Amino acid sequence: MKLYITILIFLSVSQVLSSRAFLRRHTQRYSIPPPKVAVSRAEVNTRYFTQRLDHFDPSNTNVWSQRYYVNAEFFNATENEVIFLMIGGEGEASVEWMTGGAWIETATRYGAPLIQLEHRFYGASHPFEDLSVENLRFLSSRQALEDTATFINGMNQGYNFTKDAKWIVFGGSYSGSLAAWLRQKFPHLVQGAMSASGPLFAQLDFPEYLQVVAKDLASYSQECVDTVKTAFIRLEELVDNPGELNITSLFNLCDDIEEVNTEADISTLFEAVSDVFAYVAQYNKNNGRPISVDDLCDILVNETYGDELQRLVEVNKLFYGSSCVDYRYQNVVDGMLDVTITVSGNMRQWYYQTCTEYGWYQSTSQEQVFGNKTHVEYYTNICKDVYGTDFNSSYISGQIGETNTHYGGYDVDVRNVVFVHGSFDPWSPMGLTNTTNPDSPVIFIEGTAHCSNMYPSSENDLPQLNTAREEVDRLIGVWLGVETSGVSSHFTTSIINILLLITSSLIISKF
Fold first, then answer.
1. What is residue 404's predicted lDDT score, i.e. its pLDDT?
2. For this structure, is 173 an active site residue?
3. Is residue 425 flagged as an active site residue?
């Protein structure tokens, strides 16, 4: 995942449109784009579960309605009483996941109904009528895990599942973290978990994110990386010492940078330009994404576009199209101050979680190719300016420490969890990419991006991606007691990775 990443609205019509573009850019990097599938809503039922507001205060009797989806098309109770649950993350639950994705093939094999539970404070699952800081106190991963455990208990009773019913949970990105943590905290309720691209270690400053993005560019060619680095150096020079080149015109900025250029504005500008690379790399070639790292580098190494800066401009145009780029910091803050609830809105909520639990701010604090204008203080200042002065860097660091203490960070103690990561995924440094725990193996897939294994298979998939999906499927069978454990579940991560590459050309059974 990129921690990433984020935000919302404004005064004039042009400011409103530009801020929404800024919001979309960041929102896309946080919540996983749904698979591109034809959705038959007749197969998917929308329901609501009565949930407690505060699971940790017995005196608080307030309740609210949590949305969930059900697709029982594949249910076959005569084979195994197994239920697949996709845990909602930092965005609206998606009907597309109920009829698409790799878990569909697995559900067909094991006769499992599919359920997707939306995360509190996202989509249509809101305990309150606004997103005030007072109300957001009840938004946390710990409350969400309690929601999920309560939901499983409720479903077991409401649907009269037997005591032998086995729940397998799925999650990607933040919800991948939740899937692993749910199995850790409630092993009596959850038989096993598939955690795709889940960050487990909370960290204030996360410069490793953009470092992985740079490595992704290098997989195309070193020339591509060198071009980006040179272009950002040139852009920094022009920002510090405006010359005859007009940055406002070149990058189609919504406001004249010669008139609006506070330090925070400049940080926002550089984040906007680097976001092009961050978003494309994070979801590179996932489920037919329209722009890939190869597309960016094809432009960056093509001298017919001009010098390095001009090529960076062309990449910017490819990503943003005709929309102007909003780089005003105050617009970011003003947008996130809006407490209005919308079904698709998520940045005020998600950024609150980064300020109170995780950090994960993708700064340019260490030497790399995207300049040095976006410091971690830029992100922590957003916390203070949006949620209040109490949300300072000291507070955030303390909350991050509590998160790692509570869940264990990289040292998470759990079994029957498979952790899946891709080498192109900028979130992978915060996840478990190697392990000595044979009961919770890691699958690290060379050449794939964020949550790639969750998407439906296609003829363009790398062989090692297909092999990874097969191994996840096999492990689920082991947890359900219908497959023999074999040897691969007892291998270390490095051996599993080797097997994924070696066996990719072999004929293996499909889901």
1. 98
2. yes
3. yes
Task: For residue range 29-51, list pLDDT tens digits in order.
Answer: 557 889 987 776 668 999 999 99
pLDDT reported for residue 362: 96
Is residue 468 within 8 A of residue 449, CB to CB? The reply is no
What's the pLDDT tens digit per position in 282-331? Answer: 999 998 889 999 999 999 999 999 999 999 999 999 999 999 999 999 99
Write down the mean pLDDT value for the chain: 89
Domain edges within the chain: 13-33+204-398, 42-199, 412-505
Which of 119, 126, 421, 450 is the catalytic position?
450
Respond yes or no: is residue 450 known to be catalytic: yes
Please tell me whether residue 170 adopts helix, strand or coil conformation: strand
Cβ neighbours of residue 461 under 8 Å, at least 6 residues apart?
Answer: none
Please enumerate in sequence order all residues whose Cβ is within 8 A of that of 141, keeping only pairs 6 or more positions apart, or say none: 177, 178, 181, 353, 357, 403
On the question of pLDDT at 26 being above 70, the answer is no
Which one from 173, 195, 423, 452 is the annotated catalytic residue?
173
How many Å from the N-terminal Cα to the C-terminal Cα in the chain? Answer: 26
Strands 63-71 and 114-117: antiparallel
List 425, 461, 473, 489, catalytic entry:
425
Question: What pTM, to 2 d.p., does this model score?
Answer: 0.90
SS3 of 377-424: HHHHHHHHHHHCCCCCHHHHHHHHHHHHHHHCHHHCCCCCEEEEEECC
Sign of CA dihedral 458, 443, 497, 28: positive
Among residues 429, 409, 431, the alpha carbon closest in space to that of 184 is found at: 409
Ranges 30-39, 94-103, 263-272, 380-389: which has the least confidence: 30-39
354-376 b/e (C-beta count within 10 Å ≥ 16 → b) = bbbbbbbbbbbbeebbbbebbbb
In this structure, are residues 117 and 66 in contact, taking their beta carbons and an 8 Å threshold?
yes
Report the topology of domain 42-199: Rossmann fold (3.40.50)
